[in-house]
Amino acid sequence: MNKFSDIAPEFSFEKEKIIAKSLSQRFQWEMVLIGLGQAFVWLTLWPLVLYGYISLLMGFLIATICACFAYLPSHESQHGNYSRGNPKLRWLDALVGHTTLITLIYPYEILRVTHMKHHAYTNDPQKDPDYNNAHAKSLFHVIKIAADGSSTDFQKYLEVFDNDKAFINSFNKGVPVALLLRAALMVLVVLFPLETLLLWWVPAKIGTVYTTVFFAYYPHLGTSTGRYKDTRFWSHWMPRYLNHSMQLHFIHHLHPSIGHFDEPKAIEALKPFLVARGVPGADQIPDRITYNPLIKI
Amino acid sequence: MNTLFENILNTILDWNKFWFGLLFLGSVFNAIAKKSVYLGSIENISFWAFLLGGLIGLIAKFRGAWL
Fold first, then answer.
1. CA B10/CA B16 separation, integer angstroms
2. For chain B, which residues make up each domain, given as ranges?
3. Backbone angles phi, psi at A126, to 5 degrees
4. B32: nearest CA in chain A?
5. Does A149 reach chain B within 8 Å, measured CB to CB?
6. Which stretches of chain B are DSSP H helices?
7. Burial zone of A208 (CB within 10 Å; 0-12 exposed, 13-18 middle, 19+ buried)
8. pLDDT per residue over A270-292, tens digit each?
C-alpha cells in the first residue's frame, strides 16, 4: 500500500490536494499578532529595564519567552501564508518576517531562501540547509551546534546553489540586514553590556536552540528522503502547546500553505491519506488532534 | 574603491569570532568585573576583561567553533 502506484484512488494526490487547499484559505491573524506582539513586548523591555521599572532578571525571562515565539510567525511569512498569492499583501509577509526575527538576531531573507531549499531538498546531505540539525548525533549535539551557531552557517549554501540566481539574489539581500543586526548588537553591548547580554543575546540563543530542537531535529529525526518520508509524526512527554505543535510538522512539509493553527484540522481530515502513503508514525496519529496535547510518557 | 571596501569588509568578517569575543564578551566581562567588589579592585581590570574576551574569540576563530 505504501508504493505510490498501489495507492487506492480515494487517496490520490489530487483528492489530498483538494482537502489541503480547502484548509489553506484562512488569514493567519494569530501569527501576525504573535509576531508583531512579541517584537513589541521585547522592544518595550529595553526602556522598562533601563529605567528600572522591571528587574533585568524579569526582563530576561520575558525576552526568552519572546525569543521562543519569534520564529514561527516569520516561518509563515517565508511561505507567503499571509499574502496567499495576493501581491498587494506581500508587504505583510515582509513586515512580519523581518520584525519578528529581530528578537532572534536573524535576517529574514536568508532564512526564507534557505528554508525554501530545506523544503525542496529535505534530508539531502548536500543541499538541505537543515541537514546537520535533523541528523545530529544526539539531542545534546543539536543543542550544542545550535547554541554555537554552526548549525546555521548558511554561507556554504552560496556555493551549493551558485547557479540559482534567485537564491543568490535573495541571500545577498539578507546580508546587509545580518550586518545591521550584528552592528546593533555590538553598539548596544558597549553601551549596555549586561542588558544586551540578558535581553537580546542569551534569549536569542535560547530561542534558536528551542527552534532548532523542535522545528528541525525532532520532526526529521530518523527520516529519509521523499515527499511522504522526510518528516514524521512524533510525540513525547511534552504537551504540544509547549513546542509549537511540532509533532504535526509533517503536514506542513506536505502542504506548506496550510496555516499553523489549521494543521490539527488538516491532519484529522487527511489521516487516511497519510496512513495510506506510509508517512512515518502516521499509524499512531490519534483520530482527534484538536485540543489534544499529544503526550506520550 | 569598491574592491578596497570589500577587502576590508571581508577581512573583518573573516575574523568575526575574534571581534565578537573582543567587543561583545569583553564588554560583558568588563561590566561583570566592575560589579564585583573583588574584581573591581584589580588594577586595569578593563584591559584584562577585554583581553579575556579577545582570547576566547581568537581560540574560537582557530577552532572554527565556539563550543
1. 10
2. 2-63
3. -90, -35
4. A194
5. yes
6. 2-14, 16-19, 26-35, 37-40, 45-63
7. buried
8. 999 999 999 999 999 999 999 89
